[in-house]
Design brief:
Elements lengths: L5 H11 L11 H18 L5 E10 L2 E4 L4 E9 L9 H5 L10 H4 L7 H19 L6 E4 L4 E4 L4 E10 L13 H18 L15 H23 L9
Antiparallel strand pairs: 1-6, 2-5, 3-6, 4-5
Helix pairs in contact: 1-6, 2-6, 6-7
């Protein structure tokens, strides 16, 4: 059954740690902190765990500018949208031109012109290549603690800022069922249990005891492997901005 709430994830973690046969001494408040930090770490790397948005900021040259508190990291800072954008059909395809989406010109290669679709693809590809190799990006620094942007270039006008913000789950959210999130939260809880309660011995049914040292080593290995996986397998593609 899919896990859709934080409480269901708590129950899953307790079972993975041996409950009800083992007395798991990790409080729900501690689990709450673990799950929140796990989702934050996941959303910093995983493409489907982060929310990417853009904001336009008016600047007056080099200086420090305050950004919204929700911004977690900045992916790209570019000069503002110009009149040569793809949606400016008049500029790209002739003064006063407005395409008829049902027309032959829209879909075909009539009159040897290649059609508007091919033209848009050509403009898009060219602009993407120019942004990649020539670039309209500006030099900046971002302090994510204070949420301020320091612009180093003498640029005045609109900045187009592409950023990611922290993923805040809904009360019911399938991110709680994500394999990486479940494994990392469990490993972090195992590490906490072995560290905090490991100084006490606990006897299982049949007289066996728990080796907290081995538990701690296992948790540390799992956490490192999961972090490696997050960076190599879950990270999203590099952002491409087409002006």
């Amino acid at each position: 059954m899919a896990i859709k709430t934080k409480d269901e994830l708590f129950e899953y973690i307790y079972r993975q740690l041996g409950a009800p046969f083992v007395d798991v001494e990790v409080h729900e408040d501690q689990l709450n902190d673990i799950v929140d930090s796990t989702i934050k770490e996941y959303s910093s790397f995983a493409f489907d765990g982060e929310l990417e948005e853009t904001v336009i900021l008016e600047v007056q040259g080099p200086g420090i500018y305050k950004l919204p508190d929700e911004i977690q990291s900045i992916e790209k800072v570019s000069q503002g949208v110009s009149a040569g954008g793809l949606t400016n059909f008049g500029g790209n395809f002739g003064s006063g031109y407005v395409p008829d989406i049902w027309s032959e010109q829209y879909f075909s290669s009539a009159n040897g012109g290649g059609g508007i679709i091919n033209s848009i693809i050509g403009v898009s590809t060219t602009q993407s290549m120019l942004d990649t190799y020539m670039g309209d990006d500006l030099n900046y620094d971002f302090n994510h603690h204070k949420k301020i942007l320091r612009l180093f270039e003498p640029y005045e006008g609109k900045l187009l800022i592409q950023y990611s913000k922290e993923y805040i789950p809904d009360d019911e959210d399938f991110i709680y069922n994500d394999t990486w999130v479940k494994k990392m939260a469990t490993a972090q809880a195992r590490l906490m249990q072995s560290t905090v309660t490991g100084k006490y011995s606990q006897t299982l049914v049949g007289g066996a005891t728990i080796n907290y040292s081995d538990m701690r080593s296992l948790a540390q290995e799992e956490i490192q492997q999961l972090r490696d996986d997050l960076q190599t397998q879950y990270a999203g593609p590099a952002p491409i901005l087409i002006g």
